[in-house]
What does this fold into?
Amino acid sequence: GDGPKTVRARFRDAAGNTTDELSATTTFDATDPTGLALTIRGEGPDGYTRDAEVVLALAADDATSGVHEMRLAGDAAYTGASWQPFSGGAAWTLSGGDGDKTVYLKVRDRAGNEDEASCCQALTRNVRMRILTQRIVEDSIADLVTDFIGVTFSY
It folds into this structure.
């Protein structure tokens, strides 16, 4: 299993002479990191945010060698993402436009074992509204409903 391992050895030459025992200790770690969690701090109701600039809350655990590095990306291929020291939070810019956004997190421990998680959040900046207009027709009011239109708000 995982944990400290010690290797001991003695060497003998052709004449039969042996060395004192030599030893080396290392930590064996074949287990992937666990407990990965990725959320957006300060998101609104139902997972919505109106800001493209967000702060990610990150969590991971590795009992044997510790979580060492992480990569964050906006796509599952981790395009352009480089390894950086693991931390519990990171600034992130969500991709443009409205709709569901996915942020991908990959972590690795000091032994090189990797695990990954992803998190979907929705970014809403545009509001769609129905425009209700009224017109007077022979002393009565008739409601005319126009099609939906997009209204963009700036922050």
Remarks:
- The radius of gyration is 29 Å.
- Residues 122-155 have pLDDT under 50 and may be disordered.
- The chain has no helices and 14 strands.
